Amino acid sequence: MVTQIERGRWPIRGSRCGLMAILLGLGGQASADEVESSVRDSGQLDPKRTEVGVIPAINYNSDFGLGLGVYAVMAKFSPDRRPYAWRLTGLTYATLKTQDGEWSVPIQAHRLQADIPQFIDDRLRLSGSLAFYRITNAGYYGLGNRSEEVAPPPFDENRFFEYERTYPLLEVTLRTQLIDHPVVVGKQRLEFFVGSRLSYNDLFVPLESALAEDLRVSVGSGADAELLTDLLQGTDDHWLWMLHTGLLLDTRDHEFVPSRGTFTELSIRASPGVDQNLSYVGFSFLSAWFFSLVPDRFVLATHVAADALVGSVPLYELSVLGAFNPRGAPGGSTAVRGVVQQRYAGKIKVLGNFEFRARLLPFRFLGQSLNLGALAFVDTGRVWADPQPLTLRDRRLDGPFFEFLLGVGGGLRLQWGQTFLIRADYAYSPTEATTGLYIDIGHIF
């Protein structure tokens, strides 16, 4: 969920006259190029205009509840800059969730983001954001792929597997095109990116919680204390400075609803350890592939990811993979659907998603082009607490290699125009015997 907030991917509503602001607020460079070109060629808009839009941000996630907020965008256009000269976006957002008759606010997110597609020259793209996030139900169930969900005490059942994390964040990323060949369909683009992220992390751990119990063990003596001391890093308030760099290969025929091509990330992220000796390196490989089975009708989409962390890693990073667009893994709405978000944590993570997508019913409503579709999916993945086999409380943390989590399900898709798509997924995990419902914007990959 937090990764989606950072990426700015939200279901939104708007009037017909606000469609351009919606597309520019959510789209990437390729899709915005297409939209801007078609509108400019029709002669409908001033090429030197400034556009402003304010729209609701609404979604639902069974892990975090109903999300409500406001999304605003301001974009300045110029005849010699594509898709725009600059763009500012703002988001203020929170989720509401009820459990045993009590209401809570699991997520708060407030973000201001800037994007300059042609910074200095037409091959450089500069983006940055200033944000504030608060998560009151961040999950901790233990470490490794065999972490057991032990019975919580009856007096604090709702908070036993939770802790709170509050963190302001400043991030800057610079992208440059190494290769950009024009083709008839899609693109052949290779980009290099480099960036930096600075955050201050304020953690609150309830005294009667699974995390507090493991922290009490870590300050003792013996093998268990030594192991937990090594793995449970960054639980006190601290600064974290991250550097990230990598390559992006994009050959998709469409950024939002691709039917062929690939989007692949190969990246490295690192912390030099400016506070609490949190010095570590992360290596990521993420690759999505799309195969057109029947043109404009059926697509087979696959996504695989592998992520490895080495060093003194903060606790919350053990459930995240990737550097360019970090996502939660292996459970949650963008990973193994049906498995609770942050249910599993470890230094090594692998993920696989397989979707059969169908575009079934094109129609028009109020002059707009829409298409109703459906999909079936299978998600799988797992974690390892550490590259080395570890034992805690006389129990192996990770289990056999092929002990993977599994999520299966289906969903609906409503595509509006070329760049806006609403998804609704329902998933069941046969390995966990849990379910998940997710309503959001865009495919998960």
Which features does this protein show?
445 residues; mainly beta; Porin; 16-stranded antiparallel barrel; two-stranded antiparallel sheet; 5 helices; 10% helix; 54% strand; globular; disordered N terminus
Brief sketch in words of this structure:
With about 450 residues, this protein is mainly β. The chain is built from five helices and 21 strands. The strands form three sheets. A 16-stranded antiparallel beta barrel has the order 1-2-3-5-6-7-8-9-10-11-12-15-16-19-20-21. The protein has a two-stranded antiparallel ribbon with strand order 13-14. Strands 17-18 form a two-stranded antiparallel ribbon.
Structure commentary:
The chain is mainly beta and 445 residues long. It has a 16-stranded antiparallel beta barrel. Strands 13-14 form a two-stranded antiparallel sheet. The chain is built from 5 helices and 21 strands.
What's the number of extended β-strand segments?
21
Runs in which pLDDT lies below 50 for 5 or more consecutive residues are: 1-43
Give the neighbour order of strands across the main sheet.
1-2-3-5-6-7-8-9-10-11-12-15-16-19-20-21
Class by SSE composition: mainly beta
**What is the fourth-level CATH superfamily?**
membrane protein fhac: a member of the omp85/tpsb transporter family
Largest sheet: 16 strands, antiparallel, barrel
Number of domains: 1
Give the radius of gyration.
22 Å
CATH fold topology = Porin
**Strand coverage percent:** over 45%
User: What's the helical proportion of residues?
Assistant: 10-25%
Tell me what the CATH architecture is.
Answer: Beta Barrel
How are helices and strands ordered from N to C?
Answer: HHHEEEEEEEEHHEEEEEEEEEEEEE
Tally of contiguous helical segments: 5
Shape: globular
N→C terminal distance: 14 Å
CATH class: Mainly Beta
